[in-house]
Amino acid sequence: MRRPPLRAGRRAALLAASLAVAALGIALAGCTATAGPTHTPTATSTPSGGKASAFAIKVGDCLDDADIQGTTTTAPIVPCDGPHDSEAYARFLLTDAGYPGEDKVKSEADAGCSGTAFANFVGIASADSTLPYSYYFPTADSWSTGDREVMCTIYQVDGAGKPITTTGTLKNAAR
């Protein structure tokens, strides 16, 4: 997976922060952006400070991923009832036959993560929300191994727009 640093600011300026999925030789299982299986993480998801395969992230998982930049194949999945950087709220598959290029993948990921999936999770439209989102998406290398999944994540920012940790879920935050 690949993750540039999260950016600060309001919704319109917030997201260019994205993550890319690196080749692992396995494909992620997918579902629609608006209705996917949920997963309630437990303290056994990964030990504090431990890392799991980036392909193991499920909707409902919380992550300590603010420092992840560039390509990575692991992500620290942590219990949501403790401090964490982001929470996975939706996932969907891209449908192009061949790798469409990073710009198109990011555009489709942005559209999928900011639309109905965001509103269903947060309780208001992304354009009206102060909560930014990010996403993990396939790279050209992982695409060649069958990866087509985009995993959307949400996080909080302080009054100055700087990412901050969250304790608990942002589901139905309506802000």
TrEMBL record:
Residue stretches making up the Septum formation-related domain: 35-152
Domain of life per record: Bacteria
Keyword tags: Signal
Signal peptide positions (record): 1-29
Protein's UniProt keywords contain Signal: yes
One Pfam family in the UniProt entry: Septum_form
Statement: the UniProt record of this protein carries the keyword Signal: yes
Name of the protein in question: Septum formation-related domain-containing protein
Native organism taxonomy: Bacteria, Bacillati, Actinomycetota, Actinomycetes, Micrococcales
